[in-house]
UniProtKB/TrEMBL annotation, chain A:
Family matches, as PANTHER family: GLYCOLATE OXIDASE SUBUNIT GLCD
Keyword Plastid in record: no
InterPro entries found in the cross-reference section: FAD-bd_oxidored_4_C, FAD-bd_PCMH, FAD-bd_PCMH-like_sf, FAD-bd_PCMH_sub2, FAD-linked_Oxase-like_C, FAD-linked_OxidoTrans_Type4, Oxid_FAD_bind_N, Vanillyl_alc_oxidase_C-sub2
Keywords, ordered alphabetically: FAD, Flavoprotein, Oxidoreductase
Name the record gives this protein: FAD-linked oxidase C-terminal domain-containing protein
Highest taxon, organism lineage: Bacteria
Domain FAD-binding PCMH-type: residue ranges: 39-214
Cofactor(s) listed: FAD
Automatic annotation (TrEMBL), chain B:
Domain FAD-binding PCMH-type span(s) in chain numbering: 48-227
Ranges of Low complexity composition bias in the record: 16-30
UniProt biased composition (Pro residues): 1-15, 314-326, 505-514
Renumbered residue ranges of the record's region Disordered: 1-32, 294-382, 491-514
Protein's recorded name: FAD-binding oxidoreductase
Pfam families referenced in this protein's UniProt entry, alphabetically: FAD_binding_4
Keywords for this protein: FAD, Flavoprotein
InterPro entries the UniProt entry points to: FAD-bd_PCMH, FAD-bd_PCMH-like_sf, FAD-bd_PCMH_sub2, FAD-linked_Oxase-like_C, Oxid_FAD_bind_N
TrEMBL record, chain C:
Principal EC category: oxidoreductase
Pfam families xrefs: CCG (PF02754), Fer4_8 (PF13183)
Cofactor(s) annotated in UniProt: [4Fe-4S] cluster
Stretches with biased composition (Gly residues): 447-465
Gene3D superfamilies reported in the protein's UniProt record: Alpha-helical ferredoxin (1.10.1060.10)
Name of the molecule in the record: Glycolate oxidase iron-sulfur subunit
């Protein structure tokens, strides 16, 4: 550790007490990666603050010493968004996990960032409410991480993402100032811009979320098809009928095989694809829509249909789907997960394209996807002990994203860009687009200390944004900012 | 902490620099014309909150907007963007205004893939034109706009929304991609045309509510929803605030109303609450909703005449705001706790065969009637002459907010404040009589802000007559004021985009960060 | 610490919320994912530092993470090998060494435990005054004193009990060390229920420790020694199915084949014996005896070594739920460890106490008449946590509840503190299938006035035998 960092560590200990600062190398290394273990960097210092004021004091110390910092919640992200800096401080919110308020009348809850997504739902459940966004990792992912990544989940087709359910945020800006962003504020929707900024605009320390009324009825239907194509036709027909299900999920044969191996989910034998359709809402509406979905699936040659109305039966249907990611470990020594999105009508073409890629490179691809919103999670399977397999898998993975972009889609639907996909950003956006995004970054974080190196491939420094702007920047002129 | 930005006095910009433009076109005008974009000289009809620009540009594409903006940048022209002008008088006037970019010719629907439930439009397309085009495919942009004729660009820039914000959210929730042109002519896009997308910063959010101060919105992509199979409105009236919580409970029910609106023409007037039920089983759910809303509840196939209108646009005189003729009796089996009006028999309000059967909710589809078919029956208050305010509180505080409005009106000498808006989302529009004096308005605003401060309420003054406007803090304290200023300075370092139209101030230091 | 097993962890973090120490401290290195990362560092060449050893020691071994893991990581195997490595290479401070030596020379030996009875009885009276002193001296000693259960009157169990009615099975029964010494009524109830359900119950005398405490503390050799002895004992008894009523013993006996895998002959002998949990066995056997009503509310606590290590959750609930009139209630956050965890509450008293407080608080919110669990450690832990806060939690083993139902006893026999009892059998207590025992073997523990009254942490009211 450099003397400067050692000095900073001492200062941080006065802020947090010795128990809140980690400098032991063995301990530090356990923080070297988040849920994407492929990228690793051991942080110089880890801090575990318990209050907003402590976070602000830590960030001020970083600002004053020019030390980069990275925020981390539960460390479950899949894009390396919480990858530490070896020359920086990792600010972990796992001790900020108080549920400050459940306001039933106002249908909102105020929580600290380390509270897990599911904990909010559990706290609200006795009142008949829940927190709608439900990423697969909901039992462990923190709401602070959800805010950073604008997390979605299986049910975001109907209910939207984190950004649609967060009403206010208290944050520590990269200069250490404590700011409150509120959906009720006039002017720019900074709240909306902050959500999904992957920790590059500051650290959320208090989050007000909307609570949703638990639906009267939830019905889950599992339909088995001979192939993905038939399942895809059913999805199009359901959407075409004007139905917005809470979720429509599809798994292909290989993904089903993995899930069976891991959790014995007991899906219909011989299925080339299964479709999970969940309908929720007022009972009269659900009953009507269920009849429609049932007919559509039969029309699309579903050879087996199962229906679940109670939580245990629903859990049985979801079991295979929810375990799919971890399950592929059982049929393949190693795998990469992608998170591309395509317009729903392009799904058949893109899936055919993925099949071709798979054949060309001799790499198996299991497909699990949110069919309703075109969010693909191709699991690219390979054997890491086999020479060159990793490279081929990388190539397949990368070409799948190219395929998504060429169909007008996106490189990430819910995992975030992080470090993992920043290199694809120039394929999706022009230099002007990225430079414009940098303007937001520079407004919040002119020194570039908050989670540097994420989202943007090679960010320009805040002083060198090109364009025809004239004269000296007012902040530079006033001495508030430096050009560097 | 920099000192708060004082509310900008509404002094019009200096007259155009005549050395630069001895007549149209002049050097900067030449440059504008040279951009290849249609340019015309501005007239008094083009005034922006009383400030008249020199030129009006009529670009037809994002590239043309960029060309005009580059020319404006070269000649240091201050730019205001206008759609159809329905809200151009909202907010403080610009401190400078040389060029108006009129988006009327950016009026194409660029792409509508029905199977994807996504549409990409130019900013000048009106909400009505878009709705008509989408209805053909049985789809809709689920965004109610309270003023007829508004464009997509203007709706985004002012972040306006209507009743169905409860179910579908507002423009920012439906916007999935945006194209903007910055002050220097840079064309930037963010988002895309897929609903689920977290790549990069969401510039669409940033530009929502930006009042033209960050750049020109030229294109927007939205997620769409299927048109509901049927709609029904359930209306109930309560004499005073005591009855409001019971009605607000509808929002918390499992009946999933798409909207829950309230209208109160004056501080002591009764409150009318209307819920909108949409979907396949709308009639059945409407009946259940009526049960919840008590004995005065009636179900109608069309909205009440004030629905999705601002109180200024359609002020309903007290006493005329009665619910429409009952179409169907309220619940036949009311719980005993509900008050039954004297002389009515709760058991037999709608005996079969004696009353016409309940009118079925209107089926919607290709021949669906537009959602707002009504023509305001009251004279429209001329632009800039009336008071229009927007009050937002947390939903749990909405009854207290009504009480606070009443107290503030009292304190200001008994102003007849008309309140209308979303009961469930607690976004309320307030109309003050146009003859309210400036000091009274000032007292009202200050009293109401302090009255809702404990609940974290916000009051924005969108329009006010000039003498009152000069004295009013339009925005009230905003926690993110300094971040907003820093963002604006990055996007528009020369301060040429709608300068002065969105100068918000921070809260007092004591409340800061609270 | 098998690198292949370490590699199975994909770092998803699903284990974090299940982990008691992560819940307490919010630190990565005190989570299963973090501990696996530490193991990885170690196998990649980082020496075992005192910090590393501390984080392994801090693991309760509750195995809730094994249940939570979607990738099937064998954390149970990993942490046991890590503990063994700690024991092998890590030099503990002298005070730690002395305390550990005390515990491991005491608990696995029933006779030594028995010898403790007198001092413990004395301690019951002086603990309140002694506590501050012990706390200052070593919080671990204080924890030991506080957890010590009230001294129970021993119950002699005959070597063989005949099935009541038609014989459906012949089973062995493991009496355990702590269970046998401190909770003899649980063993008696277990034997009675098995017999009433139609089993010949073989209870070989002179059983020792099964090795659970040792194997869960990284003392593999010691554990193997105990395992071999246990296997021999039951081989000699001539049974192939052995019923275990303590969750911790159940999980370690089920792992004998793995523990002894280095020696194929012994591994084979281990594999030939089938160790089954009491509830697991009864659920498999199906009911035969009549269940009499027990009108009471019961909260069921999942012992970690039953729920997580053996995956036995449904069976005890089903057994309890089948008792007429008995209302079963769930404890919130049921999968979370109570902090007892074998010897954990002795070695890590602060963390154990905090977890115990949380668990007791949640148990109390349920408002049940009785807390039922299948592990003596859990019941001691939760009852003593409640006691610290001036609350009273009445506890019982699943076997005792079934016993009461099968014998048509009143619920009060389970909820009332035990009365001083006479050693003689009372004919009115029939049907008591176990042959009447003679007076206790240990003269020191003969009946005495007031002795049984001290107990709040144990099952109350069950009359002798």
């Amino acid at each position: 550790m450099t003397p400067a960092l050692a000095g900073l560590a001492g200062r941080l200990k006065t802020i947090l007490g010795p128990g809140g600062v980690i400098t032991d190398p063995v301990r530090l290394r356990t923080y070297e990666c988040d849920g994407l273990a492929y990228h690793r960097a051991t942080p110089a210092i880890v801090v575990l603050p318990e209050t907003t004021e402590q976070v602000a004091a830590v960030v001020r110390a970083c600002d004053e010493t020019g030390t980069p910092f990275v925020a981390r919640g539960s460390g479950t992200g899949l894009s390396g968004g919480a990858l530490p800096r070896t020359d920086g401080v990792l600010i972990v919110t796992s001790r900020m996990r108080r549920i400050i308020e459940i306001d039933v009348a106002g249908r909102r809850a105020v929580v600290e960032p380390g509270v897990t997504n599911l904990a909010i739902t559990e706290a609200a459940r006795p009142y008949g409410y829940y927190y709608a966004p439900d990423p697969s990792s909901q039992q462990i992912c923190s709401i602070g991480g959800n805010v950073a990544e604008n997390s979605g989940g299986a049910h975001c087709l109907k209910y939207g993402f984190t950004v649609n359910h967060v009403l206010a945020i208290e944050l520590v800006a990269p200069d250490g100032e404590i700011v409150r962003l509120d959906a009720a504020d006039p002017g720019y929707d900074l709240l909306g811009a902050f959500i999904g900024s992957e920790g590059t605009l500051g650290i959320a320390t208090k989050i007000t979320v909307r609570l949703s009324r638990a639906p009267e009825v939830v019905t889950t239907l599992l339909a088995a098809f001979r192939d993905v194509e038939a399942g895809g036709r059913a999805v199009s027909a359901i959407i075409g009928a004007g139905i917005v299900p809470a979720a429509i999920e599809m798994m292909d044969a290989l993904a089903i095989e993995a899930a069976e191996a891991a959790v014995r989910c007991d899906y219909p034998p011989g299925a080339g694809a299964v479709l999970i359709v969940e309908l929720d809402g007022p009972s009269a509406e659900v009953a009507h829509q269920f009849a429609q979905v049932d007919r559509i699936c039969r029309d699309c040659e579903a050879f087996e249909l199962r229906v679940a109305d109670d939580p245990a039966e629903r859990a049985a249907i979801w079991k295979g789907r929810k375990s799919a990611f971890a399950a592929v470990g059982r049929i393949s020594p190693a795998y990469l997960v992608q998170d591309g999105v395509v317009p729903r009508t392009s799904l058949p073409a893109v899936l055919a394209g993925i099949e071709k890629l798979s054949a060309r490179y001799g790499i198996r691809v299991a497909n699990v996807f949110h069919a309703g919103d075109g969010n693909l999670h191709p699991l690219v399977l390979f054997d890491d002990t086999e020479e060159g397999a990793g490279e081929r898998a990388e190539r397949v993975s990368s070409e799948i994203l190219d395929l998504c972009i060429s169909h007008g889609g996106s490189i990430t639907g819910e995992h975030g860009v992080g470090v993992d996909k920043s290199r694809y950003m120039p394929k999706m956006f022009t230099a002007e687009d990225l430079d414009t995004m940098q303007l937001v970054r520079c407004a919040f974080d002119p020194k570039g200390l908050s989670n540097p190196g994420k989202i943007f491939p090679t960010p320009r420094l805040c002083g060198e944004v090109p364009g025809v702007r004239k004269g000296v920047h007012p902040l530079v002129a006033s001495g508030e900012a430096e050009q560097f | 902490m920099p000192p708060p930005n004082p509310p900008t006095p509404s002094t019009p910009s200096d007259p155009p620099d005549l050395s630069d433009s001895p007549g149209f076109p002049g050097p900067s005008g030449d440059a504008l014309v040279a951009s290849g974009v249609t340019i015309r000289e501005a007239g008094s009809d083009d005034a922006v909150a009383g400030v008249t620009p020199r030129w009006v540009a009529l670009p037809e594409s994002t590239e043309e907007v960029a060309a005009v903006m580059r020319a404006a940048a070269e000649h240091d022209l201050a730019v205001v963007t206008a759609g159809s002008g329905t809200k151009l008088h909202w907010g403080p006037p610009p401190t400078r205004c040389d060029l108006m970019v009129d988006t009327c010719c950016l009026n194409e629907i660029l792409e509508h893939v029905a199977g994807d439930l996504v549409v990409r439009v130019q900013a000048g397309v009106t909400v009505e034109a878009l709705a008509a085009a989408l209805a053909g495919a049985g789809q809709q942009l689920a965004l109610d706009v309270p003023i007829e004729g508004a464009t997509i660009g203007g709706t985004l820039a002012t972040a306006t929304a209507g009743p169905r914000r409860l179910r579908y959210g507002t423009a920012r929730d439906l916007l999935i991609g945006i194209t903007v042109v910055l002050a220097d002519g840079t064309i930037a896009r963010s988002g895309g045309k897929v609903v689920k997308n977290v790549a990069g910063y969401d510039l669409g959010k940033l530009f929502t509510g930006s009042q033209g101060t960050l750049g020109v919105i030229t294109e927007a992509t939205f997620r769409l929803h299927p048109l509901p199979a049927a709609r029904a409105w359930v209306t109930a009236t309560v004499p005073d605030l005591a009855g409001l919580p019971g009605l607000a409970a509808v929002a918390a029910s499992q009946l999933e109303p798409s909207a829950l609106e309230v209208d109160r023409p004056g501080p002591r007037a009764p409150l009318t609450v209307t819920a909108l039920i949409e979907g396949v089983a709308a009639d059945e759910r409407a009946k259940a909703t009526a049960d919840l809303m008590g004995p005065t509840a009636t179900i109608t196939p069309t909205p009440p005449n004030w629905w999705s209108h601002l109180p200024t646009d359609h002020p309903t005189p007290p006493g005329t705001n009665l619910p429409p003729e009952p179409q169907i009796a309220a619940s036949p089996d009311l719980p005993l706790a509900h008050r039954v009006p004297p002389g009515t028999d709760p058991e037999r309000q709608a005996p079969p065969g004696t009353n016409p059967p309940p009118e079925a909710p209107v089926p919607l589809g290709e021949e669906a009637p537009p959602l707002e078919p009504r023509v305001p029956s009251e004279p429209h208050v001329a632009d800039g002459e009336g008071f229009l305010m927007e009050l937002r509180v947390p939903p749990g505080a909405v009854v207290r907010a009504f009480a606070a409005v009443g107290r503030a009106a009292e304190e200001a000498g008994g102003i007849a404040v008309h309140v209308r808006g979303s009961l469930a989302s607690a976004v309320l529009h307030l109309a003050l009589p146009p003859d309210t004096t400036a000091p009274a308005a000032e007292t009202f605003v200050a009293a109401l802000r302090s009255g809702v401060a404990a609940d974290g309420g916000r009051l924005v003054v969108w329009t006010a007559p000039p003498d009152a406007a000069a004295r009013l803090d339009r925005w009230g304290p905003v926690g993110a004021a300094s971040l907003m200023r820093r963002v604006r300075e990055r996007f528009d370092p020369e301060g040429r985009m709608s300068p002065g139209r969105l100068d918000v101030g921070p809260p007092p230091a004591a409340n800061h960060g609270a | 610490m098998d690198p292949e097993l370490i590699k199975d962890c994909v770092h998803c973090g699903f284990c974090l919320p299940a982990c008691p120490t992560y819940t307490l401290w919010g630190e990565e290195m005190d989570s299963p994912r973090g501990r696996i990362h530490l193991m990885k560092q170690h196998v990649e060449g980082t020496p075992l530092t005192p910090e590393m050893a501390g984080h392994f020691d801090a693991c309760l071994g509750c195995m809730a993470c094994v249940t939570a893991c979607p990738s099937g990581v064998k954390y149970d195997v990993l942490i046991e090998s890590a503990r063994a490595e700690v024991e092998r290479v890590h030099e503990r401070p002298p005070a730690d060494r002395a305390f550990r030596a005390l515990v491991f020379s005491l608990f696995p030996y029933p006779r030594r435990l028995r010898a403790l009875r007198l001092p413990l009885r004395l301690a019951e009276r002086i603990t309140p005054r002694l506590r501050p002193l012990l706390e200052r001296l070593d919080p671990r000693l204080a924890a030991m004193a506080e957890l010590a259960p009230p001294v129970a009157r021993p119950i002699w169990l005959p070597p063989r009990i005949a099935a009541r009615g038609r014989r459906r099975a012949v089973v062995g029964m493991l009496t355990g060390c702590v269970q046998a010494e401190f909770f003899p009524r649980v063993n008696a109830a277990t034997a009675r229920v098995l017999a009433m359900e139609g089993c010949d119950v073989v209870i070989p005398p002179g059983q020792g420790c099964c090795g659970a405490l040792s194997v869960h503390s990284g003392r593999a050799e010691e554990a193997a020694r105990f395992a071999r002895r246990t296997i021999e004992t039951f081989e000699r008894a001539g049974v192939d199915t052995v019923i275990v009523n303590a969750a911790g013993c159940g999980s370690s006996t089920k792992e004998y084949a793995e523990l002894l895998s280095a020696d194929p002959a012994w591994a084979g002998r281990a594999g030939a014996l089938r160790f089954l949990d009491f509830a697991e066995f009864l659920a498999e056997l199906g009911p035969a005896a009549e269940r009499h009503p027990l009108p009471m509310t019961v909260a069921y606590h999942d012992a970690c070594h039953l729920a997580h290590a053996q995956g036995i959750r449904a069976q005890p609930r089903a057994l309890l739920g089948a008792v007429p009139g008995l209302e079963l209630r769930e404890v919130p956050d049921a999968a979370m460890c109570c902090g007892s965890a074998g010897t954990y509450n002795l070695f890590q008293p602060e963390a154990a106490r905090e977890l115990g407080d949380r668990k007791a608080e949640q148990v109390l919110t349920v408002g049940a008449d009785l807390l039922v669990s299948a592990n003596p450690g859990c019941t001691m832990q939760i009852a003593s946590a409640a006691r610290r806060h001036g609350e009273h939690v009445q506890v019982a083993h699943t076997a005792e509840v079934l016993d009461a139902s099968l014998r048509a006893l009143s619920p009060k026999t389970l909820t009332r503190p035990p009365k001083p009892s006479t050693p003689r059998s009372d004919p009115s207590l029939e049907p008591a299938p176990i042959p009447a025992s003679g007076p206790a073997l240990d003269p020191a523990s003969g009946p005495g006035p007031g002795r049984g009254d001290a107990g709040t942490g144990t099952v109350g009211g069950e009359r002798a035998r």
